């Protein structure tokens, strides 16, 4: 007598519960705030406390610090991309879209978070590289539209914008981070006004490209 072979039952992948997703979002949001304020070495227990979850919940979502830092940086980059997409869709004026995008990028504190990448984990992780490429593409799109409209001086490159935004939105050494927030957008606007066409002067050197930044 032959024994019937059991047919494996195909199981559907279960979706994370809504409360689990909310907990993960709270952890990432709290980590983003605390990494910006105190740096990447802030204790994970403190992040859990600010997020309002238990330590086990943090480690269930992120097995180590590298995973959490990477998730925070990728989420900030993706939020920056969304800001660029919204600026292009909702702002009829091409240079106005560029202004809106630059100020939104500064609010995401990219300059404070991105330096953590090389100091904490593999900066060539595929998730991080994909997020970085999305940011580069949206910056190119925003700048190309402003140049095509004759509103952005033609002698600036994507790298120029990225470097200046990072420098202007990062507090000077020895300065309390929160105390200079009120100056960031003022100084960014001064920089943006200098990008308008026609240009009142000739810039020394050549425009900084993405390839230039990758070789730094």
From TrEMBL:
The lineage of its organism: Bacteria, Bacillati, Actinomycetota, Actinomycetes, Kitasatosporales. This is TetR family transcriptional regulator. One of its GO terms (molecular function) is transcription cis-regulatory region binding. The keyword Flavoprotein does not apply. Residues 1-20 are annotated as: Disordered. Residues 9-20 have a biased composition (Basic and acidic residues). The keyword Transcription applies. PANTHER family: HTH-TYPE TRANSCRIPTIONAL REGULATOR BETI, HTH-TYPE TRANSCRIPTIONAL REGULATOR RUTR. Keywords: DNA-binding, Transcription, Transcription regulation. Residues 21-80 form the HTH tetR-type domain. It comes from Streptomyces humidus. Residues 43-62 bind DNA.
């Amino acid at each position: 007598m032959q024994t019937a072979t059991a047919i494996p039952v195909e199981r559907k992948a279960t979706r994370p519960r809504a409360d689990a997703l909310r907990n993960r979002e709270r952890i990432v949001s709290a980590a983003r705030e605390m990494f910006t304020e105190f740096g990447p070495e802030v204790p994970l227990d403190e992040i859990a406390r600010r997020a309002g979850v238990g330590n086990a919940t943090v480690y269930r979502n992120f097995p180590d610090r590298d995973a959490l830092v990477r998730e925070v940086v990728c989420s900030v980059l993706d939020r920056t991309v969304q800001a660029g997409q919204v600026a292009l869709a909702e702002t009829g004026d091409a240079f106005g879209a560029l202004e809106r995008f630059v100020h939104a990028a500064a609010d995401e504190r990219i300059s404070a978070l991105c330096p953590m990448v090389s100091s904490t984990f593999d900066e060539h992780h595929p998730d991080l590289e994909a997020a970085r490429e999305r940011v580069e593409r949206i910056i190119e799109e925003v700048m190309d539209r402003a140049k095509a409209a004759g509103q952005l001086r033609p002698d600036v490159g994507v790298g120029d914008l990225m470097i200046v935004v990072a420098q202007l939105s990062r507090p000077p050494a020895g300065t309390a981070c929160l105390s200079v927030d009120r100056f960031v957008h003022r100084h960014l606007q001064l920089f943006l006004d200098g990008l308008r066409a026609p240009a009142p002067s000739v810039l020394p050197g050549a425009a900084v490209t993405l390839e230039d930044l990758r070789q730094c």
